[in-house]
Amino acid sequence: MATPSEKPARSLEVLNHFQSQDGAAAIRSSEMPRVDRERLVTSGFLQEVMKGWYIPTRPDEARGESTAWYTSFWRFCAAYRNELFGKQWCLSPEQSLSLHAGNWSVPKQLLIRSPKAGNKATNLPHNTSLLDVRAHMPPSGDISEEEGMRIFSMDTALIACAPSYFAQNATDVRAVLSVIKDRH
Fold first, then answer.
1. Same domain for 89 and 165?
2. How confident is the model over 138-177, as pLDDT tens digits?
3. Which of 64, 58, 62 is nearest to 43 (CA)?
4. What's the predicted TM-score (pTM) here?
């Protein structure tokens, strides 16, 4: 039988296994034994994001601290959307362009397109959310993957994004346009 000090150590080994696999930033409750999950939540090593989904945290993090969430945001969103939609999702053309420009700042609301979407928002920590919109996706050749996020290719995103994006996100647009090669 494990001693009281061996039990938390075992739970930390389970968490370490998840993180060493692929840097897991999103852990489904069904993927981890309940006793380990509860121990890790109680000791501050895991935080529930939404029912059934957790992210790793530091136990010395102050209550309400956002660092763990903002560090995990993109990988969490990718894992959560892959679970719901498989490969049938991608970000909006506008968000895709921002990522192509290297702008990985966390938006207040991340727009996800999917033919399986229910046109609803999912509230997340620190006033962030996901908005799933039932919409056609570009052909598979026009989707690329960056850090687990399924995004429009640069050319397709430039064509498909709303005109207001160009005025409101001039820095991202300039960054994207600067890498497009003259094809003539």
1. yes
2. 999 999 999 999 999 999 999 999 999 999 999 999 999 9
3. 58
4. 0.86
Split into its structural domains, the chain has a count of 2
In a domain, 61, yes or no: no
> Are β-strands 46-50 and 53-56 bridged in parallel, bridged antiparallel, or unpaired?
antiparallel
DSSP state letters, the chain = ---TTHHHHHHHHHHHHHHHHH----EEGGGS-HHHHHHHHHHTSEEEEETTEEEE--TTSPTT--HHHHHHHHHHHHHHHHHHHTT--EE-HHHHHHHHTT--PPPSEEEEEETT--SEEEEETTTEEEEEEE-PPPPGGGEEEETTEEEE-HHHHHHHS-HHHHHHTHHHHHHHHHTPPP--
Distance CA 80, CA 93 (A): 20
What is the identity of the amino acid at 12? L
Say whether both 100 and 167 belong to one domain: yes
Residue-wise burial string across 58-77, b where 16 or more C-beta atoms lie within 10 A, e elsewhere: eeeeeeeeeebbeebbbbbb
Please report how the helices 34-43 and 6-22 are oriented relative to each other, as an axis angle in degrees rounded to 10: 100
Domain with 25, as residue range(s), is 6-56
Does residue 47 sit in the same domain as residue 110? no
